Amino acid sequence: MVDPNIEALFKPKSIAVIGASEKPGKIGYAIMKNLVEYGYEGKIYPVNIKGVEIKIGNRVFKSYKSILDVPDEVDMAVIVVPAKFVPQVVEECGKKGVKVLPIISSGFGELGPEGKKIEQQLVETAHKYGMRILGPNIFGVVYTPEKLNATFGPTDVMPGKLALISQSGALGIALMGWTILEKVGLSAVVSIGNKSDIDDADLLEYFETDENTKAILIYMEGVKDGRRFMEVAKKVSKVKPIVIIKAGRSERGAKAAASHTGSLAGSDKIYDAAFKQAGIIRALTIGEAFDYARTLSNLPEPAGENLVILTNGGGIGVMATDAAEEAGLHLYDDLDELKVFSNYMPPFGSYKNPVDLTGMAGAESYEGAIKAALEHPEMHSIAVLYCQTAVLDPRDLADIVIREYNASGRKKPLVVAIVGGIEAKEAIDRLNEEGIPAYPEPERAIKALAALYRWSRWKARGR
Amino acid sequence: MVDPNIEALFKPKSIAVIGASEKPGKIGYAIMKNLVEYGYEGKIYPVNIKGVEIKIGNRVFKSYKSILDVPDEVDMAVIVVPAKFVPQVVEECGKKGVKVLPIISSGFGELGPEGKKIEQQLVETAHKYGMRILGPNIFGVVYTPEKLNATFGPTDVMPGKLALISQSGALGIALMGWTILEKVGLSAVVSIGNKSDIDDADLLEYFETDENTKAILIYMEGVKDGRRFMEVAKKVSKVKPIVIIKAGRSERGAKAAASHTGSLAGSDKIYDAAFKQAGIIRALTIGEAFDYARTLSNLPEPAGENLVILTNGGGIGVMATDAAEEAGLHLYDDLDELKVFSNYMPPFGSYKNPVDLTGMAGAESYEGAIKAALEHPEMHSIAVLYCQTAVLDPRDLADIVIREYNASGRKKPLVVAIVGGIEAKEAIDRLNEEGIPAYPEPERAIKALAALYRWSRWKARGR
């Protein structure tokens, strides 16, 4: 059953911004601006003790001096006032009947035991009124299906099927920027900060049944209730893949993490074992995490083990083959069946897998080969590789892939790697915008496909 | 001693393009265009059997019907005519006294024993006249210090200190595009194709003493004379670092490579051992190769083992620390000396290495900390990490790094990682354009720095 308070974090009918500001540069302004400019369609009520007018583009908001003055129900109240005013504001939100409180304000548990105590009192107050708290010490929340961007991070988040949860504020905002730059589509971004109340496990449970989320990516520094988190993660993993980045693998790294987060050092092996048991896919770097997230949040599960690699360059075909073998993927090798590809290559091509359409391969070769691979019942997953040549503009290849993959109903996993210059980069962006995982290197495409296989196999084993 | 014929490949005083064309879209036009537009300052003589006029921008070239008609000495003749005309053209070049012949034309050894034989005859003819052949089956040659771009690949190669050698034509052109997109500075690009005459070893020997080249990157499919290559590589490695990408590591990959190049399968372990012995740094992917090439071609060798990591985010600091420990780098840990950094951080920062300047770190914090690290005699290498925040525009950080690193005389290795969105990408590009290796992820910066350490240690051991 979905917790209605947590649902209000993603699908609020109305939002108050307490500590909203009329001054560009202030966080209380940035949140108003993102709410308006990202196109949130519910009601927005700025609350500002001086009752200022706030202009965003050509909209003017009259602010209320207290949330209690708002003449309407409020589902979510984003709190941006200085720490010392937060307890009173939480109390007022309770009286108003708000459901959920993302508390942006910092100056609580992260400062030490004193702040921690105040934080716990906030949670007690919230629970007394049946409210939940996200944070404090966060940058906000995004939910793209509702055009909700209640953060002071970047505005133009690309909609998609990946939910991103970040414990770190600074890194979380940086990662939002990264997803925009790299065309990673997101369903949600949640900054969980001090996790005084709502934590990773609560969010996993929400995303488990959220129809707009297909995969979850967590940047984690530490867990409070490890047992609960692992139990929930194991359950959710059976339904949707979870990728985690958790730094602190090495001895020195773990020590640095301990001094940074106050969590115990030396516990990384325990995390690692627990992640494996829960079916969590651990990514070692940010890049790897998003590489995996692209396949996991966009592609269907493979119906079998047979991978076909289509390429116009022997070299990149071999690179992909190395990566496939190293990642435990099986190259389909029924030569009778692979012979179908000989129709789409010159005589000196090779239909052995990796299928080498040769450097002469143009639009028709690729189109025919991709279609054949999509149609063949024994070819379960496809990697399309392209080394930029003068024969075929990579952007045209992108269009061919998009057209054929859509026409096929996207029933099997397909990844793309295009090596080249500016046009290759544009082609990659175009594919990713369409939710077809595309990469600038063959190995990255294959490793990301392998992550999908790994999750799919784990899920099947666990049943 | 430098072979004058090979020197003519990079520093020709005059160039003939035999098979030059007036038609855009033709290779014989593309080469003329690149020569002119990249700014080659020597003389260019198009040769075309019909004697056509060739217009490039507002320059008009009258072509000669034969190289023998050119009223001047010709150092290099780029040959683009169909295979069947090549033997005669080579003969004429010999009579003309040309020094070196990049043969773009394909249709020789790559087609089988028949073509191989003709190829060998071409080499015999060339040698008879004291000429050398590059290729055939190549896309040409670039040497940026002479503004020489005699390829049909992209035009705007970014000047720098890395020499790129590619056995694959298609991949080589794609990699040229990649270096432009990713701001990797090049001294040279050489397509070696069928290697009928000039091979990797010849080129390594040239680059060993080339004052414009600081590191060499080879994309290799196979070697002909393995013993000579390894001997030369070992000698050159003592002077300049060599990075090699050679696919075919896995069993299946090696088989695919064998069917693609005709080289022996299963020999990868031998290559790997030989590379290690010769001090060659093997990169497993294209991305890794260029990551390494950035540090190796731009940075001075470290004077010692002490690495200092400066960061504004605990999380990315921990990631970098993990990567450093995994790559065998030593984090400087003299707390008395590290205390200098406490001057550049708020009270809740941490001067322990990784030095956490905190999320509040602005221009002054970074400037002070970078300066202190550059000046300190016991801090031998520096990694500057930045997680994009609203406090400091990453482009401003880039400018600070460029200014301080230049002011210090670039005497110790410094790498940068900036995690974030579009502004972060711009900052990274700006740094790379200035020859300061910058990456979008902390681990990549650290691994690339580690490649420089590895090479430097190997060199020291061998003495």
UniProtKB/TrEMBL annotation, chains A, B:
EC number from the UniProt entry: 6.2.1.13
Keywords of the record: Ligase
Keyword Membrane among record annotations: no
Start and end residues of each CoA-binding domain: 9-108
Pfam families, per the entry: CoA_binding_2, Ligase_CoA_2, Succ_CoA_lig
Top-rank taxon, per record: Archaea
Gene Ontology molecular function: acetate-CoA ligase (ADP-forming) activity
Catalytic activity: acetate + ATP + CoA = acetyl-CoA + ADP + phosphate
Record flagged with keyword Ligase: yes
PANTHER family given in the database record: COA BINDING DOMAIN CONTAINING PROTEIN, PEPTIDYL-LYSINE N-ACETYLTRANSFERASE PATZ
Protein name: acetate--CoA ligase (ADP-forming)
Species classification: Archaea, Methanobacteriati, Methanobacteriota, Thermococci, Thermococcales
